[in-house]
Amino acid sequence: MAKVQVEEVNKALQVEFQAGVNYVTFTCQMTKYLSFLQRRFVQEGGKIVVRRVDSLNQLGEYDAIVNCSGMDASSLVGDDQMSPIRGQVIKVEAPWQFSTVLAGGSYVIVNEESTVLGGTAQIGDYGQDVRSSDSEKILRNCTKLVPSLKNTKVIAHMASLRPGRTRVRLETEIKEIAGRRLPVIHNYGHGGSGVTLSYGCALSTLQLVKEALKINLKSKM
């Protein structure tokens, strides 16, 4: 970033950044991306079963279990390292906005039909209600970053919990389930970086599943 741009950000957010970076990349609109992945999964012969799972013991008929339970890992597998990170964002209508901006915990992320303004990262907060105080802070900080957003139309206010953990859990655990020794591949605890880490963690999870099934196959021979 040019020096004058850094100075503008510092003035807007009352911070003292020494430098900034502009670069070309892409953002991922997960509502569309997940729908796309689900369609691909079904097209390739995958089956989706909607059911409630309160214990891994309910899954003893499978050869391997992939645990992507997020915050529910605390109850499903007794993980006491899980802690919620409350996030609140605002979706606005800003078709003129083409650049994504991140600075000092505030961000303006451009999607296809909307722009997302954020955000909050309140550790240990289980509240999923939308709070006007957070909305006001988000709008104040984001319009300082991008003044043209000041009178933009608000589409929605949203709040949810990110699955926080001391570190991401990505590993294989062999557990006794319904009288069988089964591999459980854990992949959760990504905090606020779920989108960023999703592709790499998916590849690592796939490799762990392949290794686990190979071991299981050998043990049955």
From TrEMBL:
Give cofactor(s), names only: FAD
Q: Does the keyword Oxidoreductase apply?
A: yes
Alphabetical GO CC annotations of the entry are:
peroxisomal matrix
Q: Which keywords fit this entry according to its UniProt record? A: FAD, Flavoprotein, Oxidoreductase
Record keyword Transmembrane helix present: no
InterPro entries tied to this protein: D-amino_acid_oxidase_CS, DAO, FAD-dep_OxRdtase
Where are its TM segments located? none
The protein's matches in SUPFAM superfamilies, at most eight in alphabetical order, are given as: FAD-linked reductases, C-terminal domain, Nucleotide-binding domain
What Pfam families does this protein's entry cite? DAO
Q: Which residues form a coiled coil?
A: none
Q: Where is the FAD dependent oxidoreductase domain?
A: 16-203
| Biological process annotations from GO | D-amino acid catabolic process
Where does it localize? Peroxisome matrix
Molecular function terms from GO: D-amino-acid oxidase activity; FAD binding
Which protein family is named in the record?
A: Belongs to the DAMOX/DASOX family.
Which PANTHER family does the record cross-reference, listed alphabetically? D-AMINO ACID OXIDASE, D-ASPARTATE OXIDASE
What is the designated name of this protein? FAD dependent oxidoreductase domain-containing protein
Its lineage reads:
Eukaryota, Metazoa, Ecdysozoa, Arthropoda, Hexapoda
